[in-house]
C-alpha cells in the first residue's frame, strides 16, 4: 500500500461508467446508444427495455455512480490528496465527451481514469478505451487541447474490492436457516460474453495470449471462498457461472447460466445457494433484474432457498482502493517503483494494455494503451 499523497503528474480523476436511463422516456434512446451501429429496430428495443420499465424506466447505476463519486471525493480529502474528481458515462448523461470537454476547458491536461469494470475483456476494458479515443477525436476536431488520459489497472484482486464481497457472502450465509447454511453452495456470477471474446481477453500467466476474463474471475472466486472457509470453518462448494447473455443463439457464450445452474443444484439435492455477483461493481440493472428478479423467481419455483450477496458499491474500502490505484500509478509515472496491492495468484495487472489486447470486431483506435494514438 502506497503511503504517498502526491497525485502528480495527474491533475484530475475521471470516473468512467456505462450509464443508464433515469426515466421511462430515456429507455429507448439509451438502448439506441448502447446498440448503435447494429441496426436493431425500435420495436425490438422496446421489448429489450421491458426490464427497465419494471423499475419505472430508471436504472440504478447513475445514482450508484453519484454515491461512489462522493465516496471517492471524501476519501481523497480525508487522506489529504488534493485532486478533483469528475464523472462521465459511455451511454447516457453525463456523457464522456461532455465531461472531458469540461475538464479540458477547466485546464486539466493529465487525467487518470477509473472504469467501473474490474476485469479484462473487450466490453469491460477495450470498449471503454475506444470511447475515450472517440471523445478525444471529437475534442481534437473542435480545436481543443488534448489531455493525456491513463486508465487505471484492473482491480479485481485489490483487497478493497475483494474484502467487501467476502463480508457480503458471510452476511448472506447468516440469513439462511441453520438447517441449510452449512450445505449452501456459492454461485459466483458474472456477465456472460462470447467464448471468442473470453479467449482473447488479454494475456495472463498460464493462459497464453488470452483467457484473462475467466482466469481473473476464478481467482477472485477462490479468494472469497477461501476467506469464507477461514472465517466460518465450513468449506462451501462453489462454481463460476454466468448471467445476462444477450447474443445470438448460434454464437457460443460462456456457460452455465445462473438459472440452469440453480436447476442443476436443486436436482442434486443442494439445500441452499448464495449468489455472489463478483463481476459487477454495483447493484445495477443486471443485478436487480437478472439475479434479484429472474433468478430469485427460478429459485422460488424450485423451492430452493437462495440469497444474493452485496456488490461493492460505494464501500469506503473500495473508495480507498481507488485512491491507492491512483497513487501507485502516479508514482510509477514519476519513475518510482510503488507497492501494488493484489491478492490471489495472478498479481497486479498491467498499467498499459498491450497491443492487440481484447481485439474488437472492427478495427477502432483505443486510448490509454500501448497502441494508443493519443500517447
Highlighted features:
single chain, alpha/beta, Rossmann fold, four-stranded parallel β-sheet, 14 helices, 42% helix, 11% strand, globular
Largest sheet: 4 strands, parallel
| Approximate helicity band | 40-55%
Beta strand %? 5-15%
Low-confidence stretches: none
The DSSP helix count reads 14
Radius of gyration: 21 Å
Record the strand order, biggest sheet.
Answer: 2-1-3-4
CATH topology of the largest domain: Rossmann fold
CATH architectural label of the largest domain = 3-Layer(aba) Sandwich
Calculate the terminal CA-CA distance, rounded to whole Å.
Answer: 28 Å
Number of strands: 8
The CATH class label of the largest domain is Alpha Beta
Specify the structural class: alpha/beta
Helix/strand order, N-terminal first: EHHHHEHEHEHHEHHEHEHHEH
Compute the number of structural domains: 2
What is the approximate shape? globular
Residue-averaged pLDDT = 94
Structure characterization notes:
The structure is a single chain. The chain has 375 residues and is of the alpha/beta class. The protein has two domains: 12-155 and 314-333, Rossmann fold (3-Layer(aba) Sandwich); 159-308, Rossmann fold (3-Layer(aba) Sandwich). Helices cover 42% and strands 11% of the residues. It is built from 14 helices and eight strands. It has helices spanning 27-34, 42-48, 50-53, 61-78, 96-105, 122-141, 159-175, 178-181, 195-199, 212-232, 258-267, 285-288, 290-302, 316-333; strands at residues 12-17, 85-89, 110-115, 148-151, 185-191, 238-243, 273-276, 306-308. The strands form two sheets. Strands 2-1-3-4 form a four-stranded parallel β-sheet, sandwiched between helices. A four-stranded parallel β-sheet has the order 6-5-7-8. Helix 1 (27-34) crosses helix 2 and helix 7 (159-175) runs antiparallel to helix 14 (316-333). The longest helix has 21 residues, at 212-232. The relative contact order is 0.18.
Amino acid at each position: 500500500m502506497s503511503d504517498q499523497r502526491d497525485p502528480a503528474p495527474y491533475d484530475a480523476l475521471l470516473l468512467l461508467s456505462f450509464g443508464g436511463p433515469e426515466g421511462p422516456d430515456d429507455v429507448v434512446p439509451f438502448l439506441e446508444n448502447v446498440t448503435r451501429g447494429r441496426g436493431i429496430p425500435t420495436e425490438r428495443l422496446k421489448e429489450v427495455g421491458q426490464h427497465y420499465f419494471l423499475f419505472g424506466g430508471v436504472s440504478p447505476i447513475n445514482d450508484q455512480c453519484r454515491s461512489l463519486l462522493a465516496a471517492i471525493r471524501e476519501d481523497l480529502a480525508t487522506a489529504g490528496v488534493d485532486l478533483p474528481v469528475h464523472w462521465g458515462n459511455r451511454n447516457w448523461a453525463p456523457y464522456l465527451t461532455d465531461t472531458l470537454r469540461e475538464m479540458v476547458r477547466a485546464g486539466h491536461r493529465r487525467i487518470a481514469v477509473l472504469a467501473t469494470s474490474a476485469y479484462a475483456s473487450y466490453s469491460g476494458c477495450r470498449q471503454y478505451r475506444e470511447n475515450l479515443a472517440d471523445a478525444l477525436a471529437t475534442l481534437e476536431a473542435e480545436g481543443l487541447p488534448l489531455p493525456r488520459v491513463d486508465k487505471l489497472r484492473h482491480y479485481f484482486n485489490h483487497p478493497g474490492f475483494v474484502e467487501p464481497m467476502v463480508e457480503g457472502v458471510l452476511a448472506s450465509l447468516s440469513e439462511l436457516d441453520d438447517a441449510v447454511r452449512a450445505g449452501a453452495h456459492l454461485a459466483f456470477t458474472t456477465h456472460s460474453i462470447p467464448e471468442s471474446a473470453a479467449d482473447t481477453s488479454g494475456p495472463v500467466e498460464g493462459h497464453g495470449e488470452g483467457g484473462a476474463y475467466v482466469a481473473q474471475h476464478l481467482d477472485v472466486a477462490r479468494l472469497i471462498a477461501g476467506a469464507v472457509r477461514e472465517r466460518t470453518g465450513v468449506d462451501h462448494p462453489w462454481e463460476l457461472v454466468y448471467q445476462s447473455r444477450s447474443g445470438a443463439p448460434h454464437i457460443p457464450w460462456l456457460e452455465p447460466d445462473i438459472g440452469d445452474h440453480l436447476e442443476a443444484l436443486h436436482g442434486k439435492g443442494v439445500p441452499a445457494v448464495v449468489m455472489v455477483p463478483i463481476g459487477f461493481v454495483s447493484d445495477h440493472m443486471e443485478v436487480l433484474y437478472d439475479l434479484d428478479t429472474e433468478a430469485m423467481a427460478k429459485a422460488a419455483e424450485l423451492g430452493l432457498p437462495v440469497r444474493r450477496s452485496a456488490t461493492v458499491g460505494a464501500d469506503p474500502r473500495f473508495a480507498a482502493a481507488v485512491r491507492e490505484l491512483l497513487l501507485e500509478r502516479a508514482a510509477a509515472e514519476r519513475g518510482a517503483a510503488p507497492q501494488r496491492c493484489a491478492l490471489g495468484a495472478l498479481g497486479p495487472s498491467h498499467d498499459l494494455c498491450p497491443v492487440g489486447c481484447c481485439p474488437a470486431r472492427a478495427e477502432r483506435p483505443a486510448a490509454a494503451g500501448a497502441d494508443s494514438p493519443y500517447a
